[in-house]
Each structure stands twice: as C-alpha cells, then as structure tokens.
Amino acid sequence: MASAYGVGLCRDTQSAAGVPGIAAPRVVSVVFGELTRLLIAMQPGQLIKDYTAVADRLAEGLAVPRVRFRPRGHGLIWCELLSVDPLTEQVPLPVAGWDSSRLVLVGCETGEELSVSLRDCAHIIAQGQTRSGKSRWAYGLLAQLAGCPDVLIGGSDITGLLARAFANTRHSGWASGSADIEAHAEVLEALVEEMDRRIAAMPSRIDVYPTSADDPMRFVVIEELAGLITAAAAADAMAPKPKPGQRSAPKLVDRIKGAYTRLLAEGAKAGFRVLILVQRAEAGVIGGFARDQASLRISFRCDNVDSIKMLHAQADRPTAELHATAESAIALVSGPGLPLLRGKAPHMPSYAHFCDLVQTASGRRLLAV
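The structure assignment produced for this chain is given below.
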C-alpha cells in the first residue's frame, strides 16, 4: 500500500464520523513462481494506464528492476514483478513483406510488438545521440517498407548511408551526401509539387487522396536534419552577393524548411508520411510548428534530459533522466492515442544486412511489375 500511496494510486477518505482513512488498490492474490504476480483490484474509475504510467516508480518501491501490468478482467489487473529488465532480450527483426498495414516499431516490455499501419499513422520524428540505436531502428523500419507495393521511399540524406542502400531500386528519389546541398532543396520541393498535384486532383466527396500500387504512398525520409540545416546555412553564407539592382536568390535554409514544413502540415491528406531523424528534436532546429505535426515520437538515448521531456509531454523528469543513460536500441515512444511506453528496436545485425534486405525486397517488387 505504501508504494501505491506514494505514486498517487490511493486517495484519502473520511468517514461520516470524521475518521480519516485511505482507499487503496487491493491485492486479491499472489502467485509465486519463476514470475511472481499480484492480482490487483483497482479502485473504481481507475484504468490500467494509470498503473503503467507509474510503473518505474512502483518498481522502485517494490524493490524490483521492472514491473509490468496486464488486464485480467473488469477492475482487475495482473502486476508482474520482473527480476530482470525484459528489454535485455533481442527483439526479432520482422520479415520484410508486402504489407504496409503492419509496421513493427518496437518490442514492448509486455513481450508484445508495437505496430502501426502506415496509412493510419502520423508523421514520425525520431531523436537520439550517436550510437543510441536510432539509425539501426530506421534501417529496420525502411527494410519493412521496401517491398510494399503501395509505398515509394525517398527524401533527403546528407549522410548518404540510407540513400545508397536504395541504389538501383524503384526507391530512387533521394538527394544524397553533402556535395550538392541545393539538390536536397530541389528533391523536397519536387515532393511538395507532387503533394500539390494530388490535392488539386482529389476526387470530390473525399478528403484523403486514394493511394494504390499504381499511385503509391510517399514515405519521405529526412536523415540528420540538423546537419542538413547547418550545411545549408554554410552554403548560404558562401553564396555570392547579388549585384546592385538584382534580387537575392531564396536562401537554401528557407527553401528546405519551407518544403518539409509544408509536407508535414499538408502531406497526410495527400498520401505522404514524413520521417525526421535528428539527434535532438529541438524547436530551434526543426521549427516548433513543424515539430508539432510529427506526433508519433520516438526517443533513443539523448544526453539532454530536456530534449526528451520536450518531445514527450507525458515523460516526467525521473523517466527522462533514466532514459538519458539508456542502453542502445532502447526507446521511449508516444503518439496519438498511445501512452508513453518503453520499448526496444528490432535487432538489425549490420548495415550490410539492411542493404541486402532492401535490395531483395525492392527486387521482388520489380519482378512483380
């Protein structure tokens, strides 16, 4: 009861005679074994998410590494006391398939997979410092999409690593590397033009563009956005000054930011989904309005606690501080209708394996066409 009271799952009461008391969740039974489980009768009006939201603090109070909760019946939940962190085990990499309606994002502490449908999900933003597992997670997600006939992948990759995995495939709409920053602006602007074309061609009486294998969804990846913005600013600074009487050309930074902001703000109804990969999802880099449009949010280890809290409004400071030192591939995930949860990215053995998966999956699609 002390642990439940300390995390706010109990409430103070007072009898008609003025005697103070406590209304608390009740332990109905205890099952001992390899996994100790407590059957908990929740207080009226409580939901399982009220317990998962304070799982870390309950684990500390119960002197175990982790606890997890599962539904048992109306008003009843199982509280499982875990002697080891369930996310120490590898999460299997999903088999690359043809179906964009089930994309595995992470493996959860419950042993279940968190999956989304690309058609129904929001734009995605993923942050994490170097060696946090962010890139390997992105490899796994893109490998799942590469063979989907109703999806076309492209975008901006200043590192060149993501883009080159798609060389000689139908997913060829990339600007890659740092040699030609204007090419990144041009690719993003071309995507905006395609978005505008789709919106203008929207059939009457519908408000979402009907995509298909013949006119696929566009999955737009912007890899290392902060690096792209920095490189664009440097290119702008080196650009020759206009002669007297000449109008200055639009800055590359403004072109890039304007393009991806429009894709984030208007693209969903035109069959576009955007994935932004960045070390820190700071409003000063991305833009506050643009960041707000990417509501499916994934944080790998970040050295700045405030960066975690800014991206995940549900994360309290202790949760953010703990995640700042998380192991590689461990992520916090939140999104529309999705409470903050802790998960682990599917295991991607190597970059070479990612390249092989993409080429094989994309090749299957080419043969099918």
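Interim note for the steering committee: The first helix runs from residue 2 to 6. The two ends are 63 Å apart (CA to CA).
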